[in-house]
Design a protein that fits this description.
heterodimer, A: 3-stranded parallel β-sheet, 3 helices, 3 strands, 32% helix, 24% strand, B: 5-stranded parallel β-sheet, 65 strands
Chain lengths: 72, 1454
């Protein structure tokens, strides 16, 4: 899917698994404030970081993520 | 009294700070309809401006925002912004309230809050929300999370320039656009109202400049030449502005005369889609502009360019075609659907003096016309021009240019009365023209029919005439002759109306002008319109343009068959933006408009004005004061894709019926400029605490970087000065503002956290840390953060010129003088009643107390002087956030008490269709991708994402919408769900945090379970943060959408758990808190059980006689007991002990042991009102010497009128006994006031008594400060001591002596005392821990109960269904206890009023011993998901975020 990007050289892809109440809200606020950051992250929202099962992180890495950010 | 069935189940809450929000939520969640009225543009009040909150340093915006969203989306709350309460009529239970609404100019139903409008707005003004430390646009919202999230426009009125301009162009608008370099936009804006900017940029009499507010500061803006600057864009084909034409209407309009009015009319009619033909008798188009105004003022080629635009719109101009000669007027009438007569006044008026027909007399109009048409005319050397208008100036200056040597003006008044433009007169004089004033012609003198001179008389000025100018009066016998070769009279013009036939019926008046309607420019004959000089007599170009434009509007309406007059009358002199204080503006000189030098221009017809260059134009435009704020440039209208902006909104009135009113308009901060010695407003680095709050805020003007205003550098030494505008009789603010000591401490701590090297110093009089955990906070500030506290009030601040540092002069306690330099000073400004308090109180029919805050009842601090109207928050007196929130809930409870019978009668019913049967349907996903105007679509390739979605598994339907959240899309979505039989819906748009609920409702309305919905956030977390990477953002959008679709297939329909609710309450403790709560519950119709362990009700209240404010508490208590024992809904159990509490919210079972045995009650909620105790002390010889007593004992002696007191002359009181020490590091709050109360009583009984209060800080906060002040005035002495230097009490017989170090005398003093009264503090109820265990609720480290949230949930526990009030929470006054009890009831009723409860607390997992496994009580589960991650057997899972669902997203990353 990302051939167009691939042509420009390798770009890492990160997964962020974040708490709905703080980090996800923070990511929204970044948008509202139009703070620009690289488009290499895909955010997955969970109700609480306590819900994150460690194997999510492993599975994400297995699925091709170059890094996983857990924030909450 | 109204009967219950006559009442209205709605409440109006006036003011929407945290007080109003909390009251609204409590009411709305208890089945009341709420109108939340706000005079600003959004809710949130001052709390939204705060950075952090004390003493927990929670982020203020973070804790407030969820409340904003909740109230914003609550179906029972209607938020009404920009409203003012005009009157409140009626009685408790049924009020009629009249509101007026100021226009917002943005339709909130359409505005999506995208902010595109603000991006294009050219007007910047100081952002009040940021303490004026940054700028915002004229269209704005205060902060990104604001509710309502839509924008608003500020207009102070019509700017005077626009009002005074005859065509009412948005002058401020195009000036602002020029200032921004948006020249094309400026031209377009001008042309909306005037198609002749090239002309009016050169030859207008510019009344706009006369009205310009900048003129009050220095000189008016050079508006005319700014217009010329942008208008000249039309000279160039590349930059020319050709407006868009509407579709042809197939109708023909004839225009007689190609002057400014006729061509203007033609221009606007052409745009409207009419076929317009213009008939002109002259060989050129332009009328007077072409043949009257000389080339050097208005070059022919620029005029032609302007007219070319009109021709390019399709207007046909027939030159050399005279109506009445070449074509008859009647033929025009027959051939065209409408006619506009705009043929001007081209005939010159006669002087009517002898000799006027001699050779050499040539009328100015004829002279100019001939010259302009290319004729060569030689006038001779000496030329007299008669008149003082612009034609006279044109004639005289043209004469100069055609070679006459001596050219002069004869004018019968003086220069001041000359109607010509001042710059014309100036330029004529520069070119050598002589002006002879107060001279009138009598007779032309000549020889052989040829002029040789003119006989004149001298004039003098008399009384003003109709024109307002002084009338010239002839001086008899002053005749004299002026020699000249030619005379050019230029005294007036007339119309030539010979072409209008009698048969046409058009009425012509006695001045030989066409009669017309002043608004519509219609003549007496339908279909024939007129305007310009032919209708009004000679006027200005700009007035002719206006006439043409208005006539075009009429013709359009006439041809559409509409009422031509309806709604068009407007008084432009009203609502002017001319009231602003202009004294603050710095002077900026007007740009000098470049002119050709007089010697270069005298000999030719080259244009005199050279035009501004771009830099000059921009600089000149930026001088504009933006006096109207919004400039009405209408850029926002174009930018708004949602079409939400409406500049024509007007003030509206409405009347609303409610049962009760809650006033919560809040407060405002003291204007620090009134304390001139601190230099606020003059020294840049002196800021107010609220400004500093914004400086600290990450969303503030400096993004949280602590910096000075003067140079942006990080300060090192920052001084906080307390009590600015508080405890200060010099500015009439005697009260203490209650919160400043704490907020200064907080700001000092946060500032130090932001800038590690910071050294804050707080200058104070007393540190008032009287709230729960406040002292601990101050101790941390001192100990951990090293913040310096100096007990002193600085006398003056001086700014050091080089560094902009500030030199603070202050006196130490021992009287020595100190000076210290600081980098920055923060003034802890006090809290004042809101500005509108007086008016609001008058309109609401409530009284204010002496300081201007709302007057409240001693027995119930949320009751105003008017029954049915309640108050909460700082309007009732300065207070902090938790107190405000408690009052808000208490006010809600009181309102509900009044309206309980009408609960649920006015709320919005939820009416959803039955959920559809999905069995056998499988996963059918519909995807809706949103453009969000250009917010997403401007970055992400939305159609590509939509097409991509169609390729994903399970997707059966895709669509893209301009705004997915709009009402029409919602309807469409519901239809599609049904039509396409969708079982999953995925929306790719904004954030689920703001919009999930809305889309879920759409699903429900279509019969789809709301939990079968999923969102992909491609705006907030994609298009907005990758604005410059459209390709990558599109890829990311596809990824996010694919992940969402993948997750959606695993979603399951969910049903909320339900459990019935028992409608009774258990109240633990029968003191003032418990009794008040029971009565308040009973008011609302709920039964309660009071469990009191003593043998009587009343608790600590039994020991109180009077409050400081004068409430007779004995009588109050008696009244309460009476009511309680009479109330059938209240069961009282004394000498009772709780054995066991089982169950959870809605379903409790409690076992109580009483004398008679055990009793079991079922109830739905628990109110903990277990109280607290007076400490027992052994300090200061208490219990060893009878002269040493507690304050409570002293109070009993006083009010029981004990004879022992008669001989007492010397009284010493010692404060903080057993409080604020290591063992109990908290303040007991009421002791200072109790000491002052007893001291005042003792002094009143015997003024000769010598009373000394030995204290650490006197904490008589809010209005209690007045009593402290009174005590000082009555010569009660106050000596402060430090914790490490306590006073000492020594026995001497039956008397005692108190030894204490006096810091002012700087020595030890010895005070003899007949009585030493100890202010001993409060200790928590020792049973708190046991109660806490039974209810699974915590206590804090001091042993008081710990609330769910210190700021916003002060009477709740984390455990739902359990509430607290009174001293179980923390030490407090009796009136505060009453408020808190009512607040607890308000919160409890939110549960009790439900039939079923659907969502609950922790401890949701219990072991089912019988089954041998863990069970989740779905009612109790909060859905955090912690169990799922910790379950080793993977047995636990979480709906909406189960393993399958989350993993589906992870697996679909690529």
């Amino acid at each position: 899917m990302a051939e167009s990007l691939a042509n420009k050289g390798w770009e890492p892809k990160f997964v962020a698994i974040v708490c709905n109440w703080c980090t996800y809200a923070g990511a929204d606020l970044a948008g509202i404030s139009r703070i620009q950051y690289p488009p290499n992250v895909r955010i997955i929202r969970v109700p609480c970081t306590g819900r994150i099962n460690p194997f999510y992180i492993v599975k994400a890495l297995q699925s091709g993520a170059d890094g996983v950010l857990v924030s909450g | 009294m109204l009967k219950d069935n006559e009442k209205v189940g709605a409440v109006m809450v006036v003011g929407s700070g945290i007080a109003g929000i909390q009251a609204s939520l409590d009411l709305a969640n208890s089945g009341m309809k709420v109108y939340l009225v706000e005079n600003g543009i959004s809710i949130g009040g001052v709390m939204a401006q705060l950075d952090k909150t004390f003493p927990t340093n929670d982020c203020s915006a973070c804790i407030l925002s969820p409340k904003l969203v909740e109230v914003g989306r609550h179906p029972n709350v209607e938020i009404k912004t920009r409203r003012t309460v005009e009157s409140v009529e009626g009685e408790p239970g049924k009020f009629k309230i009249k509101l007026t609404s100021a226009p917002r100019y943005v339709n909130l139903n359409k505005c999506t809050g995208c902010g595109d409008c603000a991006n294009v707005c050219p007007v910047s003004v100081p952002a009040g929300f940021n303490g004026n430390l940054s700028e915002r646009k004229a269209i704005y919202r205060h902060f990104p999370q604001a509710i309502p999230s839509g924008f608003a426009i500020d207009k102070l009125g019509t700017s005077p320039c626009k009002s005074n301009c005859p065509t009412h162009i948005s002058v401020q608008g195009y000036v602002a656009l020029i200032g921004q370099g948006k020249f094309k936009e400026a031209l377009k804006l001008i042309k909306q109202d005037n198609p002749f900017p090239i002309v009016c940029g050169r030859v207008c009499n510019h009344p706009c400049e006369t009205a310009c507010m900048r003129g009050k500061v220095d000189e008016a803006i050079d508006i005319m030449h700014l217009k010329q600057f942008v208008a000249d864009l039309d000279l160039n084909a590349d930059t020319r502005y050709l407006p868009e034409k509407k579709e042809s209407k197939g109708k023909k309009v004839a225009v007689v005369g190609a002057g400014p009015s006729g061509l203007t009319c033609a221009y606007y009619l052409a745009i409207e889609g009419y076929d317009v033909e213009v008939f002109e008798s002259l060989p050129v188009a332009g009328g007077w502009l072409a043949v009257g105004i000389p080339e050097y003022r208005l070059p022919k080629k620029v005029l032609k360019a302007e007219i070319k635009v009109i021709e390019d719109l399709g207007v046909k101009i027939h030159l050399n075609t005279r109506i009445g000669k070449d074509i008859s007027f009647d033929k025009l009438k027959a051939d065209f659907n409408a006619i506009f007569i705009g043929c001007g006044t081209m005939k010159s008026s006669k002087l009517n003096i002898p000799g006027e027909d001699m050779q050499g007399v040539i009328h100015g109009v004829d002279y100019l016309m001939k010259i302009n048409l290319g004729e060569k005319i030689s006038l001779g050397d000496k030329v007299a021009v008669i008149g003082g208008g612009n034609v006279a100036m044109d004639a005289v200056r043209t004469a100069v240019r055609t070679g006459s040597k001596e050219v002069f003006i004869l004018y019968r008044r003086t220069r001041a009365e000359m109607p010509a433009a001042p710059e014309e007169i100036e330029e004529a004089i520069e070119e050598g023209v002589e002006m002879k004033f107060l001279v009138a012609p009598k007779r032309v003198v000549g020889k052989d029919g040829k002029v040789s001179g003119i006989e004149c008389t001298r004039m003098e000025l008399g009384e003003p005439d109709a024109s307002g100018r002084r009338r010239p009066i002839e001086i008899k016998g002053s005749e004299f002759i002026v020699e000249c070769d030619a005379i050019l009279p230029a005294i007036g013009q007339e119309a030539d109306l010979s072409f209008i036939t009698k048969e046409s019926g058009v009425s012509i008046n006695k001045w030989n002008n066409v009669d017309f309607d002043k608004v519509t420019y219609a003549t007496n004959i339908a279909g024939i319109f007129t305007g310009g000089d032919v209708a009004t007599g000679p006027q200005t170009v700009v007035k002719a343009v206006f006439a043409g434009k208005e006539a075009a509007k009429s013709i359009n309406r006439y041809l559409l068959g509409e009422d031509i007059k309806l709604g068009r009358e407007k008084d432009w002199t009203k609502d002017l933006a001319d009231k602003a204080d202009v004294s603050q503006f710095a002077k900026v000189p007007r740009e000098k408009y470049p002119l050709m030098k007089p010697e270069d221009r005298k000999t030719n017809f080259k244009e005199v004005g050279l035009g501004f260059d771009e830099a000059q134009a921009v600089a000149e435009a930026q001088r504009c004061l933006n006096c109207g704020i919004c400039s009405e440039c209408y850029q926002c209208v174009d930018a708004c894709i949602a079409k939400a902006i409406d500049h024509d909104m007007t003030v509206e009135e409405e009347t609303i019926e409610v049962g009760a009113v809650i006033a919560s308009p809040g407060f405002e901060t003291f204007d620090a400029r009134l304390r001139g010695e601190f230099g606020y407003g003059i020294y840049k680095n002196v800021v107010t605490a609220l400004q500093f709050e914004r400086i600290l805020s990450a969303s503030g003007p400096f993004f949280g970087h602590v910096q000075r205003i003067s140079d942006g550098k990080e300060p090192k030494k920052v001084a906080f000065i307390q009590c600015v505008g508080s405890r200060d009789v010099s500015c009439d603010n005697s009260w203490c503002s209650s919160v400043c000591c704490m907020y200064a401490t907080k700001e000092a701590i946060i500032a130090k956290e932001h800038a590690k090297g910071l050294e804050p110093t707080i200058f104070y009089m007393d540190i008032r840390a009287h709230g729960k955990d406040f002292d601990r906070f101050v101790n941390r500030a001192k100990g951990e953060y090293g913040i310096r506290y100096i007990r002193s009030m600085p006398s003056v601040i001086k700014e050091l010129q080089q560094t902009n540092n500030l030199l603070i002069k202050y006196v130490n306690q021992d009287g020595t003088l100190n000076e210290e330099e600081f980098d920055m000073v923060v003034l802890s400004v006090g809290l004042m009643p809101p500005k509108e308090a007086k008016q609001l109180a008058a309109n609401m029919g409530i009284e204010l107390e002496e300081h201007g805050f709302c007057k409240t009842s001693l027995e119930n601090p949320v009751q105003t002087s008017r029954p049915g109207v309640f108050v909460c928050g700082a309007f009732g007196g300065p207070k902090d956030i938790p107190e405000t929130v408690m009052e808000a809930s208490a006010a809600a409870a009181c309102a509900e008490g009044l309206l309980a019978a009408k609960r649920g009668t006015m709320i919005t019913p939820v009416d959803n269709p039955e959920e559809k049967d999905m069995r056998g349907t499988g996963v059918r996903t519909g995807v809706f991708v949103c453009h969000c105007g250009i917010n997403i679509g401007g970055v992400v390739d939305v159609p590509a994402v939509r097409d991509y979605a169609a390729t994903l598994p399970t997707v059966v339907y895709t669509a893209d919408n301009l705004f997915t959240c709009s009402q029409d899309t919602a309807v469409k979505m519901a239809e599609v769900i049904k039509e396409k039989d969708l079982t999953r819906v995925v929306v790719a748009s904004c954030s689920p945090r703001t919009h999930e609920g809305l889309f879920q409702e759409n699903c429900e309305k279509a019969g789809l379970n709301r939990y079968l919905f999923e969102m992909a956030n491609i705006r907030d977390q994609n298009s907005w943060v990758h604005m410059h990477e459209p390709e990558a953002a599109t890829e990311k959008a596809k990824d996010l959408l694919r992940m969402a679709v993948a997750k959606a297939q695993y979603l399951k329909p969910l049903k909320p758990g339900q459990l019935s609710v028992n409608h009774q309450a258990l109240i633990i403790g029968g003191g003032l808190a418990g009794m008040t709560a029971a009565l308040s519950l009973a008011d609302q119709g709920f039964a309660s059980f009071i469990v009191e362990k003593d043998d009587r009700l009343g608790g600590n209240y039994n020991h109180l006689y009077k409050t400081l404010e004068g409430l007779d508490t004995r009588a109050h208590l008696k009244g309460l007991l009476d009511k309680i024992y009479k109330n059938p809904l209240i069961t009282v159990l004394t000498s009772a002990h709780i054995e066991k509490i089982e169950g959870f919210i809605g379903n409790y079972k409690t076992t109580v042991k009483v004398k008679e045995g055990e009793k079991v009650f079922e109830h739905g909620v628990v109110i903990v009102a277990a109280g607290a105790y007076e400490n027992k002390t052994r300090e200061y010889l208490y219990g060893q010497n009878a002269a040493v007593k507690t304050q409570r004992e002293l109070e009993t002696l006083i009010y029981e009128k004990d004879p022992k007191l008669a001989s007492v002359k010397n009284v010493v009181m010692i404060q903080c006994v057993g409080s604020r020490d290591n063992e109990r590091p908290y303040c007991s709050r009421y002791c200072c006031s109790e000491a002052v109360k007893n001291a005042l009583e003792l002094k009143a009984a015997d003024p000769s008594r010598d009373i000394t209060i030995i204290y650490r800080d006197i904490r008589t906060f809010a209005f209690k400060e007045d009593y402290y002040k009174k005590a000082r005035e009555l010569n009660i002495k106050f000596i402060s001591y430090e914790e490490d230097r306590k006073p000492e009490v020594v026995s001497s017989g039956d008397k005692v002596e108190v030894k204490v170090f006096d810091p002012i005398l700087n020595e030890q003093v010895s005070l003899p005392a007949d009585i030493v009264a100890l202010s001993i503090g409060v200790v928590p109820n020792p049973e708190n821990a046991a109660i806490g265990q039974m209810l699974k609720v915590p206590t804090n480290q001091d042993g008081f109960f710990l609330e769910a949230h210190v700021k916003l949930r002060p009477v709740d526990f984390q455990t739902d269904g359990v509430f607290m009030c009174g001293m179980a929470h923390s030490p407090k006054f009796s009136d505060e206890t009453i408020t808190q009890a009512n607040a607890a009831v308000s919160r409890a009723v939110m549960v009790l009023c439900l039939d079923f409860k659907i969502n609950c607390p922790y401890s949701a997992i219990q072991v089912n011993v019988a089954e041998g496994c863990a069970e989740v009580n779905t009612v109790l589960c909060k859905g955090c998901g912690v169990c799922t991650a910790s379950c080793r057997m993977n047995a636990a899972d979480l709906n909406g975020f189960n393993n399958e669902e989350v993993l589906a997203q992870i697996f679909n990353l690529n």
